[in-house]
Every structure is written in C-alpha cells, then in structure tokens.
Amino acid sequence: GAGVSQSPSNKVTEKGKDVELRCDPISGHTALYWYRQRLGQGLEFLIYFQGNSAPDKSGLPSDRFSAERTGESVSTLTIQRTQQEDSAVYLCASSLGTAYNEQFFGPGTRLTVL
Amino acid sequence: QQQVKQSPQSLIVQKGGISIINCAYENTAFDYFPWYQQFPGKGPALLIAIRPDVSEKKEGRFTISFNKSAKQFSLHIMDSQPGDSATYFCAARGGSARQLTFGSGTQLTVLP
User: Fold this and answer.
1) How far is the C-alpha of B5 from the C-alpha of B10, rounded, in Å?
2) Tens of pLDDT along B85-102?
3) Across the interface, which of A44, A100, A105 has its CB nearest the CB of B43?
4) Bridge partners of A94?
5) Phi-psi region of B106 (alpha: psi -120 to 50; beta: other; left: phi over 0)
6) Which among A41, A4, A83, A8 has a CA at the least distance from the CA of B2?
7) How far is A82 from chain B (nearest CA, A)?
8) Residues B35, A97: contact at Cβ < 8 Å?
9) pLDDT value, residue A75
10) Nearest CB to B45: which of A31, A44, A105?
11) How far apart (Å, rounded) are the C-alpha atoms in residues A31 and B98?
12) How many CA atoms lie within 13 A of A70 on its CB side?
C-alpha cells in the first residue's frame, strides 16, 4: 500500500518568505507527527496530531511555525518569514495512534532558505 | 536538554564484522526504545524496537540489548554487510508523550 508522502521534495526560498509543506499520511492512521532534521543531526519533534484532540505543539521552535490537519488526513506545516536557520529536512510520520505503534516516515521535504 | 545520547557519531566496520551502537537515556518514564535506519534521501524506517520488560531482542542479524538499571541500550549488527551502510538512530518514547525523542545518529560504513 501507499506510504507517507510529502510535497514538495525540495523547496528553495528566500529569507522572509512563507512556505507551506504538505504531508499525506497512511490511510487509517490517526496520529501524525512533524519532525525537523538538521544536517548531520537527529530528528527534533515539532508537533503531533491525534484524531480530533488538540495538537501537541510543544516542539514548535517559534510562533513562525504552525501546522494544521484536516480530520485524519492531510497536514500542512507552515513557516512564516523564513530564516536561514530554518533550513533542514522536514519529516512527517504517521501511526495508528495507540501507544507503541510504529511511526512510518515520509521521505521528507528539504527546505533551503537563502 | 538532550535526553538520548548516542555514540559513536560514525563507525567503520569490515564486511562480516559486528557493528555496535550505544545509547543512553535520562528520562525514567521512557518505556519504548526503537532503532531506525535511514538511507540518504529517505525517511527513517523502523529496524527493531524493545520494551524494558526484556533485556534483549533479536531479529535476524539485529539485536537490541537493554540495561534498565544503567539506562542504556545498544544495537548490535552481526555479520555486517555493505548494504547495512546507513545512518542509525536510537529513539525513546514514554510518559505522556507520544512523540519519539531521537539520538543524534550514527553513520555506519561497512567496507566490502
């Protein structure tokens, strides 16, 4: 079956511009996560959606970052007024939502802020 | 605060050798410890995972060893192959959190 998909695969933008990154989770997965991976580093948690519950936004690094999810499907991560330090690979993962379920990752969006 | 510390940062092993990657954690609420494998340009993929009620879990050539009292866990790759060359991440989850806390990654190179 189809895995987690993300678009675009690459995004180059200028400092100060807004960007939107999209994630399509695996069908039926109620949980969706966004992580950021800076070059040569581990993954940093950004935000978590579970069904219709309020999202866990505790990992968002600043108020320039926001995310939405439509029901249990597509999610978009928006970064406003991008900065060079926002350059990273943004990874989306989905899971069945209960404890200990495997998180399936998409291929990521590589964001470069010039 | 880095809650999961991973070492080494990079590792070079000869084909057929044993690769060992170590992780240590601080949060005693962690109760799920997965290892992920990531190839260049791809997202991480689950390799093997363990819960703290067992001290070891083996799947094929991959083994997790877990030491609850020391708050450490490790990945052993037996008979390492060039196709195992990738970046490996340990992670942990627990308490009220659903997200994973990742280590910084180990770049493994297996020489032919």
Assistant:
1) 14
2) 999 999 999 877 788 999
3) A105
4) A32, A104
5) beta
6) A41
7) 23
8) no
9) 97
10) A105
11) 9
12) 8
**Which chain B residues touch A45 with a CB distance below 8 Å?**
99-101
Q: Is B89 on the interface with A (CB under 8 A)?
A: yes
State the distance between the two ends of chain B, measured CA to CA, in whole angstroms. Answer: 38
For residue A25, say if its preceding peptide bond is cis, omega within 30 degrees of 0: no
- A5-16 average pLDDT score: 97
Contact A107/A90 with Cβ under 8 angstroms?
Answer: no
Query: Of B6, B97, B100, which has the smallest distance from its Cβ to A103's Cβ?
Result: B100
Which helix H or strand E contains B97, and what residues bound it?
A: none
Q: What's residue A39's pLDDT?
A: 87
Assess B101–A contact: CB distance below 8 Å, yes or no. Answer: yes
pLDDT over threshold 90, residue B38: yes
Write the pLDDT tens digit of every residue in A35-65.
999 988 889 999 999 988 889 999 999 999 9
Q: How many residues are recorded in chain B? A: 112
Under a CB-based contact definition with an 8 Å cutoff, are residues A6 and A35 in contact? no
CB atoms closer than 10 angstroms to residue A87? 16
